[in-house]
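Can you give me the bound-state structure? Components:
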Amino acid sequence: MNICVCVKQVPASNETRLDPVTHTIIREGAEGILNPFDAFAVEEAVRLKARFGGRVTALSMGIPAAEAMLRRVIAVGADDAVLLTDRAFAGSDTLATARVLARAVGKLGLPDLILCGRMATDGDTAQVGPMLAENLGLPHVSDVAAVESLEDGALTVRRLTDDGYARVRVRLPALLTVLREINVPRLPSIEGVLRGEAAGIAVWDHDSVAMPPEQAGLAGSATRVVRTVRPDLSVKTVAIEGTPAEQAAALIDCLRAEKLIGTEEQP
Amino acid sequence: MESGGWKGGNTLQLIRKMTDEYAGCLFDESRTMGRADYVAFPTGEGEVAEVVRWCAENGVPLTAQGGLTGLAGGASPERGLALNLSRMDRILGMRRDERGVYYLRVQPGLLLAQLRRALAAKSFDISDWDEDSVETLRPVRPGQLFFPPDPTEPTASLGGMAACNACGARSVLYGCTRAHVNALRVVLANGRVTQLVRGRDRARGRRAALPLEGGGVFEIELPPFDTPDIKDAGYFIRENMDLVDLFMGSQGTLGVISELELALMPAPKHLWGLTAFFPDDENALAYVRAMKGHPDPGVPFFPHRAASIEFFDKNALDMVVAQKAVTPAFRQLQELPDHHNCAVYVEFNGGDPGAMTPMLRELTGVLDAVGGDAARTWVARDQRELEQLLFFRHSVPETIDLIVEENRKREPCITILSTDMAVDDAHFDELFHIYRRDLAATALRWVIFGHIGENHVHPNILARTRAEYEQGHAIFEKWARDVHRMGGSISAEHGAGKIKRKLALIMYGPERMRALVALKRAFDPQLLLGPGNILTIDGEARP
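Here's the bound-state model for the whole set.
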């Protein structure tokens, strides 16, 4: 089973800087890490390869520094990696990103399975995976909690829904987005780290994937970020003194004053 | 109130009758259940002195306690008053000496985790700081400075760490708590306060004069022998010694630490580590020798120094794997390689991230030569990945806590039964084999893990019955005699506390024990401080 796993580099912390003009995240100079959700997709790809054979190729669109992240993905078991990087890709929204990724998948040759993390921790949209599937005309299953079996060219997976879990059978080739609970991502071995350091990472620009520049980046995006705000996370701490009974009574008064609990007396 | 008279009315407010509400003050992490008639929560040194004076005047014994994370019962009160210092958790100020070393003055109830957070985020409550301290702090960057001792449990208090001279994993590189405490303020048994600064306040030969706040000195004669020259959490006695060290390791038996000045170090820029799995304990021992710079013939020399070297035996690994199935918090633990037997965690604190890859190549050669496997060795390349290895390391004592708590439900006499005996390099393999042989000859449940880099692992006996608990104690006493014969220490980092008092007697022998008791009487004529800790006092009835 040949697998393509899509990964994204995200800022390591919430202390990010935003471009005052485009309202997008300034990625240069900030410490970048593998999107934590994508680590589960990578791990699942490596486990499926161990179960069913094949190759795992990691695909990422990002700044040149994302190459280091791809070496880390190889260190935990991917066979090779491709970095899509080009000024023409900068500022892509989810639609433009999915378009570029689709071209790259086309160039790689359609794999049996594409895996993505549930979403990225910077954008929090959870849109790129499904959009990529639509671009490629593939079926997709989102929020997958377990890959149960492979029979007659179809995967049986368990996906989380609002009401519980549903078992879904999907014919390959297909795309899955996976949840945190699907596995525990491994740490690399020494051998893996050395392999990652030595690996050649393919670097592709818009010409490499025959992508007209006007269909990618800010120009190719269907959405514009009009305004960004920083959420107010300030916390007020109040120390409640007194005996446990007095403290409990004071706490109830506080919670009622903040309308966090109702005011009706229990019958 | 620093040296003023005692105000009876205030003291009565400060000292409370022991009630169920304060039951949490009766035991530490070892589950040694104590008892107490009173409890006090002082907020400053003046109040500590007030409580100590009240105890002296009324003949009430007192036990100082901080984070209650000790593993030997040192902070579990035996009787009298529990002096809980948890409300003394402020950072009081900062200075920098002419060599550029930064020092932080802290109260004894400050938790290690609070200290680490403050340093990492440069987040200090400076409302009570003097101008010099504020100016010293100004150019410091978040994460620039760190306090190296790492006794695994981050909720340990600084006062508690000093009282038992806690060591922990990183002491291979940085030494124990003792090495990072520059000065102490201590409330003595009569309520007087002494301030001791390393380098300034030293013994002359075996005569010591402690300067007292408000004038005068307190003179004592030190015992006529030196304590073991090996990592040891007990009393520290030397000719011409720094008097600070008299209180480091004495577990609240000579005075109550009311303030500490910590020496900080520049934080290492690149923390990384690895956990190697081995088919047999002997492979792990050979790997540890190589990591310490003493490779066996045929094993490549590895020139880099580790910050910590930790061992986990098969029972410890299996125990955590079994607990993972029932404890949700452990679900994110890494899956172990197939056919694991034992593991060794090594951490490096370096400056240049580029140095890691060549070191990994060197490590591959070492692992090949000692029977390890580079493909079955986890690497954590940065702080974030290291958290996963540390989470795993911490899960071992956490699981032991859970199991002991469970066993206690059936047999309340059971406590943690963990040893932290240490010997020198030449004797470690012998001691390790004694542990293995003695435990394998029993039907007990046990695990061995811990600081193998400093020649002290923690054999833990998970007693299920009173008979097993007593059998565990008997084995520990046998080991204490073995360790004594090898010139080692019966407690390298937890302190003897109450659980290992008998082992301390074996290590010191009756004559030296009498000399230590004489030192104790000089400081504390009524024997009120830290009753039941470390010392065996002739003729005194003990439970």
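A couple of observations. Chain A touches chain B through 16 residues (CB under 8 Å). Chain A has six helices and eleven strands.
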